[in-house]
Design brief:
Structural class of chain B: mainly alpha
Number of helices of chain B: 14
Number of helices of chain A: 9
Order of helices and strands of chain A: EEEHEEHEHHHEHEHEEHH
Oligomer: heterodimer
Number of domains of chain A: 1
Strand order of the largest sheet of chain A: 6-7-8-3-9-10
Shape of chain A: globular
CATH superfamily of chain A: P-loop containing nucleotide triphosphate hydrolases
Structural class of chain A: alpha/beta
Order of helices and strands of chain B: HHHHHHEHHHHEHHHH
CATH topology of chain A: Rossmann fold
CATH class of chain B: Mainly Alpha
Strand order of the largest sheet of chain B: 1-2
Number of domains of chain B: 1
Helix content of chain B: over 70%
Number of strands of chain A: 10
CATH architecture of chain A: 3-Layer(aba) Sandwich
Shape of chain B: globular
Largest interface: A-B, 38 and 25 residues
Distance between the termini of chain B: 17 Å
CATH architecture of chain B: Orthogonal Bundle
Chain lengths: 248, 321
């Protein structure tokens, strides 16, 4: 049995009277896709905010790759390989598509206190960025200002930026949000292709995508994990059906 | 190739080259057109260009709207003045000392103010620089409100670099301007520059790809402060006088005008902005002493209708053609 790559120990987060994360203990195994599902307001994004370091938990610990990262700031966690994508597309809108990805690759190459050489002429940034965009069907859009991309393309760029940092683990916050069925299917296929290389924690409302991709699923309701198991086990779980999937 | 050629020939670049050419030949042009006072005016405009260029690095490229940029101009000018007052006249001591002092002040001010965002950042940079303004006003030894007269310009000890010679000093300023433009051109296109611009575009995203933004912003702040210090050194030498007004918020505001007027985040924009500012101020002041009544609305029009300032306006044209 391999060591889990990400562990949370009784993670707790309140917003005033609202309990967003309730004694949540998770173990994510390396290589697979672990999906978190649950109704709106279950605390899924709050969980990703805490895992990525953008929000501090009230109590509990987070360990990543054998290291306690609870007190590490977000950028330091990224440098360890724990990288998130955003539910509301977060890209550099005034930058070209290629520059977005090249900058993320640059960020993964150590400090940027280099003041003299032109970044736009650096093949160690441009080449991998081009290759990555090619793989995501964004290759033809390299020179477009990213703010002018169609929504689905922006979602792809969002993922491309996260990937460009060379992550060990991705925290994907609704990667398919706002995508059409076709785009959604393509993204599902792409993420499936990353399986094995990069561990993924996936939050997604598109249940087709979730059940197609996930090795394990945790169901979150009011910040509490009510069930964790294989997709088949979750589908069969009576409590989950009542709480979330909708009992037919 | 054709695309590259047209791009090189944009109106914006032609104007930039023209402005630099006028600056380069002003010591000959001014006497030729019978208005020798233009030399001093352009020397002043170039010094202001350097200050505005430095502000543009953090404001135009980095999105940090500092309302206290005059602080670095002032401390460097005062460093030259105070050293001179105590009999240290060598440029080789005065200039590096002044640059180091402005770098240290920029580091301290940046370390404090960059912990805040938005309006708070603007207010803190303003408050910190006003602190220095009031400190200067209360420094009796150095003239308080009346300011400090500098007996003579920094001594270089080199016969071909005698700053008391008007034309020589003019070209020292011109060379400093070119140096700053070159250094900034390299910086904004470097890896560091991309990070600074990325922070302006979306700071949360930069943190999301692993950039600890604070240290990069602070480094940009120190670079900008030091460069503004160079402007302060030149100004102290040009005017042979330094007063608390050098540190006043009004000076910081003027720098913001120039950057906005010329075009935020365009390399050459602040130079155009500074030159236009000086010309407008001079011409409008001929019309009325309340020239700001005309200048104010003009600036508002620029902000409303010419986003990207003069430079942005010029860049839009060739695309239609």
């Amino acid at each position: 049995m391999p060591e889990p790559i990400l562990v949370t120990e009784s993670l707790h987060k309140n917003f005033a009277a609202l309990i967003a994360t309730d004694s949540l203990s998770l173990e994510i195994m390396p290589g697979g896709i672990h999906a978190i599902i649950g109704p709106n307001g279950a605390g899924k994004t709050t969980l990703i905010n805490q895992l990525s370091g953008m929000m501090k938990p009230d109590s509990g610990r987070i360990r990543f790759a054998g290291q306690d990262v609870t007190d590490l700031a977000a950028p330091a966690r990224v440098r360890l390989g724990l990288v998130r994508s955003f539910q509301i597309t977060s890209i550099l809108r005034d930058f070209s598509v290629l520059d977005n990805v090249a900058l993320a690759i640059q960020a993964g190459q150590g400090h940027s206190f280099r003041f003299w050489a032109k970044a736009a002429l650096d093949p160690t940034l441009r080449e991998p960025a081009r290759a990555l965009l090619e793989g995501l069907d964004l290759g033809a859009r390299n020179d477009v200002r990213s703010g002018e991309l169609a929504h689905g393309e922006q979602r792809q760029l969002e993922i491309a930026m996260a990937l460009a940092t060379n992550p060990k683990m991705l925290l994907l916050d609704e990667p398919m949000a706002g995508m059409g069925p076709e785009e959604s299917a393509r993204m599902t296929e792409y993420l499936a292709g990353l399986k094995g290389r990069i561990t993924m924690l996936l939050i997604e409302h598109d249940m087709d995508a979730v059940f197609a991709l996930a090795d394990r699923i945790t169901v979150l309701v009011y910040g509490r994990a009510i069930a964790t198991g294989t997709p088949d086990a979750i589908r069969a779980d009576g409590e989950v059906r009542r709480a979330y999937l909708g009992d037919a | 190739m054709n695309v590259g050629l047209t791009r090189c020939m944009t109106l914006s670049r032609v104007i930039s080259a023209l402005v630099l050419a006028i600056c380069a030949f002003m010591p000959f042009l001014a006497p030729a057109v019978g208005e020798p006072f233009l030399i001093g005016m352009f020397a002043r405009a170039m010094i202001w260009s350097i200050a505005a260029l430095s502000l543009n690095l953090i404001m135009g490229y980095g999105g940090m709207i500092s309302f206290g940029h005059a602080a670095y101009l002032g401390v460097a000018a005062y460093t030259v003045g105070i050293l001179s007052f105590h009999g240290v006249t060598s440029a080789w001591i005065q200039w590096p000392t002044a640059l180091i002092v402005s770098a240290i002040v920029a580091f301290l001010f940046g370390a404090i103010s960059l912990r805040t965002r938005g309006v708070y950042f603007i207010m803190i940079t303003l408050a910190l620089s006003q602190m220095l303004y009031f400190l200067a006003r209360s420094a009796e030894l150095y003239g308080s409100d009346d300011g400090l007269t500098i007996a003579r310009r920094s001594a270089t000890g080199l016969s071909f670099l005698n700053l008391n010679d008007r034309v020589t000093f003019y070209y020292v300023i011109f060379a400093a301007l070119l140096l700053c433009l070159f250094v900034l051109w390299r910086i904004v296109n470097s890896r560091f520059g991309m990070v600074i611009r990325g922070i302006k575009s979306n700071e949360t995203r930069m943190e999301g790809i692993g950039i600890s933004t604070y240290r990069y912003k602070l480094a940009a702040f120190v670079i900008a402060g030091t460069m503004c210090g160079l402007a302060g050194i030149l100004e102290a030498n040009l005017e042979k006088f330094v007063s608390p007004d050098t540190l006043n918020w009004a000076r910081s505001g003027e720098m913001i005008f120039m950057v906005v007027l010329g075009g935020m985040g365009s390399l050459f924009g602040p130079v155009t902005g500074a030159v236009v500012y000086w010309l407008l101020q001079d011409k409008l002041a001929d019309l009325t002493e309340h020239w700001q009544i005309i200048f104010g609305p003009f600036l508002i029009l620029v902000v409303l209708f010419a986003r990207g300032g003069i430079d942005g306006m010029l860049k839009r044209r060739p695309r239609d053609a």
